Structure prediction request, 992 residues.
Amino acid sequence: MSKPLLRVSRNLGPSTVTLLVSLVILFPIVWLVLSSFKETGELFSYPLAMLPSRFTFVHYRKVIGEGFFGYVFNSLFLAVVGTAITLVISAMCGYALAIYRHEVSYTNLVFGIFLLGTLIPGETLTVPQVTVISELGLYNNIWGVILPVVTTTTGIFMFRQHYLSIPLSFVEAARIDGSNEAQTFLYVMLPLGTSSTVTLAIFSFMWRWNDYILPLLVLSDQKKYTIQIAIKNYIGFNGVDWSSILAASVMSIIPIIVLFIILQRYIVGGLSASGVKG
Amino acid sequence: MKKVSTILLMALLLSSMVFAAGTKEAASTGPQVLKVMLSEEPSSEDALLNTMKQWAAETGNTLDVMVIPYEDQLTKFPLMARNNDLPDLLTTTRLSRLYPDEFLDMAEYFDMSIFEPMAVEIIVQDYKSSKKSILPQQFTITNVYYNKDAFARAGITAPTIEKPWTLDELEKNAILLKEKGGVKYGMAMDASRARYDNLMYANGGSMVEKDGAGFDVAINSPQNIATLQKFIDWNNKFMPKAIWAGGTTDNPADYFKNGDVGIYFSGSWNYNSFYNQIKNFKWGVMPSPVGKSASAILGGSGLGVPAKAKNKDLAISFLKWFYTKENFQQYLNRDKGLSSLVGVTYSPSDAQVAEDYKVLQSEVGKVTYAFSVDESSMWRNFYDNEYRDALKQAVNGDLTAAKALNDFAALLSKKSGWDLKY
Amino acid sequence: MKTRYVKRHVRAFWLFVAPCLLLFSTFFLIPLGLSVGFSFTNYDGWKVMNFIGLANYKELFADTKFYQSLGRTFTYTLFSLPFKVIIPLLIASLVTSKRVAIKGLARTLTYIPSLLSALVVGITINWMFSAEYGLVNFIIQSLGGTPLQWALNPKLATFVISFASNWASTGFYMVIFIGGLNNIPQEIYEAASIDGSTTRQTFLRITVPMLAPTTFLATLLSTVNLLKEYALVQGITQGGPGLNTTFIIQFIFDKGFNQMQYGYASAISLVVMVIFAFIAYVQFKFSNGGDR
Prediction:
């Protein structure tokens, strides 16, 4: 009789905390979304109200009318292709940095070089980077936008950390079975790498979705532009078109949220992912 | 039969070649694409865009409008130049000043006397070369808005063009507005250096002074220090301090729209949005106050044609069309701002708007000689943000007015090589 | 004397690393090299590039504002770092715990703010912390207190940015921690509960140590991201009040990029990069690279 009661009260505490945390985080987002439905003049009229006095879709219609869905398609292409490449090369790289750390003495050095990628303020490299892209003949070429950004330090970092936690005995076991290094990689990678892969997929998709400076500078045709560029274009010299920015931003995060909802079970699932049973 | 068909075939081939050649010729006078670069997404009522669309409809050409945000244009423009991807026409002031060699010299195509001299001097003038790299398109000016209802509540009469206020009267009335006008702030000012500079010029000060062919640094003159000190006091007494001290991204225009500000120092670009959005109280434009002299600062943007653009002839033909009296009148009616073309003015039908427009036009005469001197020295090439930071720190109380300006003067003097006057 | 076995592994290592390394060299290391080159010139972004030797560096090291800006950045990072690591960890354990309902919803909600651009986060935080009409002051006033000057008080302004930074990135680090939590084998937890360990003990003695590699990842990433904070600051305080929230990246922009002084900006960036690299190195050594 007491056991179910105990279970309820044991679960109630953490559940309530979780709920509260979620609400605190959610509250400003709700304001944001509701504000995208307010008339322009009402957005900053004080006191700042939560609910619009009148729901209006005019900003959404305007943003869509200005070609928003075209930009969505471009962002989608960039995100899917970029993520696919990132996943493959980051997994390979992170794996090698972790698994061969005892046989290759300079793995940490190589890792350190990749770490440089996140240590320098990105904007510093924009001018030399577009010079390189231009010299390589990749101006106005989608690969000039994709290739420079698919090597993500965070991705390599994540995979490396993940593979560091796998006992080398497991890898040895795979090798004894007579597989070469490539086969070993796949043998270790596929069952065990799921959670890191999905995590990086979510992140990479988000990063590519938010890419701004390279698409803007490298692509010549407006029709190839991405969502972030569309949003930033609403910032004027003498004033910011907040209503359009809000509407565009709300629309732009929906696909990633959907992706997250679909994929999140794969991050959490597979609890016995270590697979090291002996 | 074969002979006939051969002859027919030859005739067909020949005629198609002639036709093609003919079409090619027609192509150069037929529909072409004008690639235009703007710095922000134009709203549906944007004056320039709508006028360009009108041109496209009349001439049968097409527009290809691209938007590159202002700050990114500095990186994009060189890249476009290197890759032969330049737009045919663009709106700018900065690019033409930075890279005059990249633009066509408009003086070769236009008689510059058709433009308002003030517009040419402020927008087009380049102190590095005598080239006229752009033509003045939009012409803006600083001006002062006021809340008529608040004035009525506090029993204040607005100044007129004939009888503007002194700076002391401005201060007195701002205090009165805060106490009795029912507003939160007697006065507010855009957090833009140019707006503050009007106070400096009105008080007889300037950034530099001419010294023969060169310049002396004058930013830390006694009257400038006094101006800044006063400004700090005003911020503490009746202005929204956080705007100028930094720490917020609030736009004082929103405060004004809410009816929380009695007097608002801003510019002509806000007029339209106020007109469309303020419904709760009566407002208007008042002439700016006069210190030792009056002061106003002009701004705007111009249209330029890159020298290596593909369709530069098309761009020139558009400009020729644009700057005729009838067409520019249409543009001005949409823009509702100051006119850069002689002989064309905007005549609002609304009586109130006409009143306000008269005040706006009267501000043009207030541009000071000191401002022109400062602009010609191009001091911003040495230090720009540092000046703004000095003002911010002074208003915030981190530095005294004297220290802030003395330090900046020392910095500017060192970098530019100019002597310190004070 | 390397065995053929090891040689094969070394070759495999290079093959695996090759794609990343190639792309990285082309699109990062070479531009970095160019940037080093620029730092010895007065490059303006396009037309002007004259060799000026160490002049940029000399000017930088003599500039007190540089050191002040660095100092503020370090203070801000130190202050915000614990929250940036601990809060996501706690949330991650909540949303993976078996005892919590509505996990999926909570996970998604927490993740949403990290999708928003800095611009949009800024406007949202302004709504909350506006001194005049913000929500927080409104609540404080309703409870009878005096509204706080979020924009004019340097400490409060820094706090607001810290809050915004946390709000906007918790979801990201939460996901990283969830990944790490899932690497811990269930058997260990089962063994612990059989041994009668309480939740707190289990968490502190088992979960946290086993999370070491992930914690290192999260700590290093958050440190670097805090040090580089810029877009968010621009959206909230723009470096004010005065210069109190002008951190180092803004310094680079104000001094360099915004005034067309790419040579100088490159010099500052390189110095800053070296400093950041040193901090990263210290963290690396301290936690042994996260290797257990």
